[in-house]
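Below: protein 1.
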Amino acid sequence: SEGFNFGVSASDINFLGKGLQFNTVFNWSKQEWALALDCTEPYLMDRPISVGYNVHVNKIQRSEEIESLDNLSERYVGGSFHAGYIMSKWAIDTVFRSVVGIENIKLNRKPAVRQDAWGNPGAAAYSRIVQQQFKAGTMCYINLEVGQDMRNRVLTPSAGFQWSVTSRVGLPSVNFGFWKLDLDYSWYTALIDEIGLV
């Protein structure tokens, strides 16, 4: 569906004059609003160690995107603590990062298929899938990440590469428990220098 989107953000790489990295973001649309705050100490005690925290809250109106559902919205409230270390032993900075967080998910109502959709084939199976997909509860998770960034520029790279491996474990609880692994690799090279095609 179409609609108006509004967003504002503010960031500072020397917050309070103490070298802290601070970032806050607020987004609003008809379907969703979100607020997030993040603060990081990038070089703890003059060592290549970073620590920080994140807090966030957002609400998503699901029935706007899934028309067969009765009025359903999810509210997420969470926070996390993250710590990282930059190792330069092999002359290429390798970043190790870990995140420990908690997320509380609340539904405004039990997920239900609209009455007028029950006449469609497979409505009963779809209803079971919806109730599995949307659950309320509290989840704790742990992230472990490692990666390197060897691009020549961060915003508009034209040479180099970056890679990362991220593993996330949702600690088993009544409603939640999962494990996932993300692998990401990007390589940049100039194809036509005259027009800047990369």
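Below: protein 2.
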Amino acid sequence: NAVATYNNPHASFRCDGYVMTMVVAWTALLHAVFYQRGVQPCYLKRDSSKIYEVVDGERKKWELATCVAEYFSGTTSPVEANLKFFIGLRNKIEHSSLYGIDETIFGECQALLYNFEDIIHTEFGDQWQIGESLAISLQMSRVRDGSQGAALKRLHQHAARSIVNYVDDMRSS
């Protein structure tokens, strides 16, 4: 779904949808890794080593930031840095739009997808990989004329500047 959203020429919130869907997908993937390893990716109640926190009748599972911290514990990895970038970006876009940011973070989005596929391969083997089922998207270079693009950039300028600053800060770190 994330790739289909990103590659959909009619999607209004292409990058937003991709980021949100990939955060959910990564969370589910890392939960599966932990379950396979015999680890319950769930929060324990404070002052307890055996009683889990419960939300709506279900054990409260770790969010992606906790999964990443546990999965990469004691190591430094560019995959971890990419995931932390997207966790922060997801937090920034939760209540705003990312218009015009698609081209800016294309490389990070592609890396997030490649890393996802690599973890599937590493943890579960080739039979679960999704790469062969994805089509390569065709691209058009002139979807809008200049005045349409300029008007949309002015409309989203403030939110975009905050996000571009976030991207620049992450890249420079």
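DSSP finds seven helices and two strands in the chain.
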